[in-house]
Amino acid sequence: MFDEIPTPFILIDAQTVRRNLDQLASYAKSHRIGLRPHTKTHKSKRIARMQIERGAVGLTVAKVGEAMVMADETDDLLMAYPALHPARCAQLAALARDRKVRVAVDSSVAADALADAARSAGATIGILVELDVGHHRNGVQNAQDAVALAQQVDRTDGLRLDGLMFYPGHISHGPPGTIENGLQAVSSKLAEVLDAWHRNGLEAKIVSGGSTPAGRLSHLIPQLTEFRPGTYVFNDVNCIRQGCATIEDCAARIICTVISTAVPGQFVIDAGSKTLTSDRCGPAPESGHGMILEYPNAKIAKLSEEHGHVDATACERRPKVGERVTVIPNHICPCINLQDNVWWHEPGSAPEPMSVDARGKVY
Ligand SMILES: Cc1ncc(COP(=O)(O)O)c(C=O)c1O
């Protein structure tokens, strides 16, 4: 059915996307936690619309360029990334004139930059103070710093203090209880910060957290008002290895062609780092650069830009040149960002191209 589409391309199974969206939407509803999906994974207005139709409270983006695209689909945006440059802040402030725009910040520099832009635009930008709960990427480190930044935001014209944001990216797989214990520690840190805010007369209407691995256990953080999973829409090898998805839950697959079998013990596919990215699998860094469904014992051992070198020594059979294979990538989000279009596949119909609307928005 797909033979006429040249490889490599990303095929999206529409039914699996709908099932993934439905499951998390129903989880969020049953636990009364707002779902604010991170659009970094799909970067597509069509899928954003499907998330909103299923009750998402708004959308999350990482970049101003993404915010400008996703503003077509919602009037409630969170940018979970600090905007510093005046031009970026000005674009966000312009969006904030007629919709809710919130930004997560962990520094007074970022808060000041947004405040200047908001005042010039005659707008108000909502601020979530980002707290480091163990991922050690962004985020104020303790309750004292969270209070100081919140107080600064609270007294600054152009800004509105809305609450707290955190990203539990360090919480993933492990022996039974790993995620539960991790979330318990996050909850304790939040309790400490919220208590300090309360004592200082500060209010957090929003506490925004969540990721795909911790997504369905979000209710273990009672302080949470919303969560921001992104990868759950497609899933990938990271999700499989973390135990939060099965192969059947993986809605995005890269269709490739075997272009060479000349070197003994290996074959080469037409997907290299420009398609699969060089991201390793977090839980199993030595497992190669993705999973080939037709050859489960093969290992995509090495990538050059356009070549995927596959170690086939453990395979019972070898493919022929021209054969197509299906790869689930380690990390789907950056793979989607490398495509102008992906192919949307409804059962019984030929796949149709779907634009990756917010691809390449690095500003
Ligand atoms: C700030 C933030 N929130 C939410 C997410 C979504 O997490 P996941 O990809 O596990 O769904 C990410 C992912 O990188 C993130 O950086």
Rg result: 22 Å
Rough outline: globular
Largest sheet: 9 strands, mixed
Helix content: 25-40%
Bound molecules: pyridoxal-5'-phosphate
Average pLDDT over all residues? 97
Note the gap between the termini.
38 Å
Low-confidence stretches: none
Helix/strand/pairing category:
alpha/beta
Number of helices: 11
Question: How are the SSEs placed, and which strands pair?
Answer:
Elements lengths: L8 E5 H18 L2 E2 L9 H9 L5 E3 L2 H7 L5 E4 L6 H11 L3 E6 L2 H14 L3 E6 L12 H12 L4 E7 L12 H22 L6 E4 L2 H4 L10 E2 L9 H6 L9 E9 L5 E4 L3 H4 L14 E2 L6 E5 L4 E4 L12 E5 L3 H6 L3 E5 L6 E4 L8
Parallel strand pairs: 1-16, 2-9, 3-4, 4-5, 5-6, 6-7, 7-8, 8-9
Antiparallel strand pairs: 1-10, 10-11, 10-15, 11-14, 12-15, 13-14, 16-17
Helix pairs in contact: 4-5, 6-7
The protein binds pyridoxal-5'-phosphate.
Describe the structure.
The protein has 363 residues and is an alpha/beta fold. The protein is 31% helix and 21% strand. It has eleven helices and 17 strands. The strands form two sheets. Strands 1, 10, 11, 12, 13, 14, 15, 16 and 17 form a nine-stranded mixed beta sheet that branches. It has an eight-stranded parallel beta sheet with strand order 2-9-8-7-6-5-4-3. A hairpin with a 5-residue loop joins strand 10 (252-260) and strand 11. Helix 6 (143-154) packs across helix 7. 48% of the residues are buried. The model has no long low-confidence stretch (mean pLDDT 97). The protein binds pyridoxal-5'-phosphate. Pyridoxal-5'-phosphate (PLP) binds at residues 38, 80, 167, 211-213, 228-232.
